[in-house]
Write a structure and sequence with these properties.
The chain is 22% helix and 22% strand. With 467 residues, it is an alpha+beta fold.
Length: 467
């Protein structure tokens, strides 16, 4: 099991895409694992035949444990001779994984993206049994234990040949690769083959609400968490294991709440002019094809306010006893996903134009909803926005994302009576809540920052005059 995300210590095996006896090729996805931050597909860095799957689906495995054995020498190795059991634990860090004695000296097979490192693994020579011939080369094929990281789909029997992007396309279109006729070289299935297979008979169950005449079987509709849960004997309680993203989020939030002294301030204001600007931008040719919504302009207002109040964009380094002022803004957006709450961030959001920011927000949200956010996308955030307004909630008291000085909660935007130009009128009104670390941000700085965001959104022309 490699370290797939900056120091994570364990991951759960969600799905095996191969079975014992399947042929695998270098770069082929063999399993999907869930770390504390994201679901990751693991590829195999060898050609060979799967000899053993060490752990079943649903098992949480520590980083460094061997999870699969691959026969890279051809043929079937006798189980009694499997040197896998004696191999050094495989740890992918950035260091390359350890392999068997037969691997050429000075180089080790590595995971995709980890590079190649010179081998430092040393093994004691095996003692030959008494009376055995000293140096005969073994005829048995070599078995290699590796961690993996790939994408694929393993049908029963022979595995169809297709590259990872083609397998993903087939998965998205609901196409079983075992039913596709390949036209590529050496019998490889191409994207065109998948589209051709999908065109005649789109999967109706995936495209339309289930008709009354063909309801889906009840067992197939059971939610994944409940399927893995332990139900009490009287069926009145359900116990769901705490793991993956939810486990990491819980630990981070408890650590944040009891480490950083939280202060939360609120401001309620008239956001009508910003809402009108949103409608105008939707028809602007420079924003053609881009998603324009209130969150886009709120994010831009935050970036302008950070520029005016740079000390809000900081971190507390307890070990070094230093305050770290960030000269860049990696803007985090809290996203609710089937795996739990995650906070991916837009790198260098401060340097993006409004169209670029719109594109980045759309990509961030769509990737999160598909469950494909990478661990790297959730690292290095400097300021976070959480939009509780989408649930109709007026406001909240958000807990800081660990390592950040402040977080902004955006409440629902509602039509309310409001005094405007001396008269009570129906106006679009919202409430913002800013939580901040009082070690880094005092009341004056927090208040100025929050007031600046509200002032920009009340008069959005300040996006230009204050930028």
């Amino acid at each position: 099991m490699p370290d797939v995300g900056e120091g994570l210590t364990e991951a759960e095996i969600l799905k095996w895409y191969v079975q014992v006896g399947d042929t695998v090729t270098d770069g082929q996805v063999v399993c999907e694992v869930e770390t504390a931050k994201a679901a990751v597909e693991l590829p195999i860095p060898f050609d060979g035949t799967v000899h053993e799957l060490r752990f079943p689906e649903g098992t949480t495995v520590d980083v460094g444990q061997v999870i699969i054995s691959v026969n890279v020498g051809g043929g079937d190795a006798p189980a009694a001779e499997a040197p896998v059991a004696e191999a050094a634990p495989v740890v992918a860090a950035p260091a390359a994984p350890a392999v068997e004695d037969e691997e050429p000296k000075g180089r080790q097979p590595v995971l995709v993206g980890y590079g190649v490192a010179a081998s430092s693994t040393k093994r004691r020579p095996r003692k030959a049994p008494a009376g055995a011939a000293p140096a005969a080369a073994p005829a048995a094929p070599v078995l290699v234990s590796v961690p993996e990281q790939l994408n694929g789909h393993a049908p029963a029997g022979a595995r169809p040949l297709a590259k990872p992007p083609v397998r993903k396309l087939a998965k998205d279109l609901g196409v079983d690769l075992a039913t596709v006729t390949p036209t590529g070289p050496d019998g490889i299935i191409t994207r065109e083959d998948v589209h051709a297979a999908a065109a005649p008979a789109p999967a109706p169950a995936a495209l339309a609400p289930a008709p009354v005449a063909a309801p889906a079987p009840a067992p197939a509709q059971a939610p994944a968490p409940v399927a893995a849960a332990v139900v009490s004997s009287d069926a009145r309680e359900v116990r769901i294991p705490i793991k993956g993203v939810r486990k990491a989020t819980a630990a981070a939030m408890v650590g944040s709440a009891f480490t950083a002294p939280h202060v939360t301030e609120f401001v309620t204001f008239d956001i009508t002019r910003t809402m009108k600007l949103v409608e105008e931008l939707k028809s602007d040719k420079d924003m053609a094809g881009l998603r324009v919504n209130p969150l886009l302009l709120i994010a831009k207002a935050v970036l302008v306010a950070v520029k005016r109040n740079p000390d809000i964009n900081a971190a507390w380094d307890e070990a070094a006893q230093e305050i770290v002022l960030k000269q860049y803004v990696n803007l985090g957006i809290a996203a609710a996903t089937p795996r739990g709450l995650i906070v991916p961030n837009i790198k260098d959001a401060h340097a993006q134009t409004l169209p670029e920011l719109s594109k980045s927000l759309s990509e961030l949200v769509s990737t999160a909803r598909e469950g494909k956010t990478t661990p790297a996308a959730m690292q290095g955030g400097t300021f976070t926005i959480t939009n509780v307004g989408v649930f109709g909630v007026d406001t909240g008291t958000p807990i800081l994302n660990p390592g950040e000085a402040a977080i902004l909660a955006v409440g629902a935007i509602k039509l309310q009576p409001w005094v405007h130009k001396g008269k009570v009128k129906a106006r679009q009104v919202t409430t913002l809540a800013l939580s901040f670390d009082h070690r880094l941000v005092d009341g004056e700085l927090g208040s100025k920052f929050l007031a600046d965001i509200a002032a920009i959104l009340e008069q959005p022309k300040r996006l230009i005059t204050w930028a």
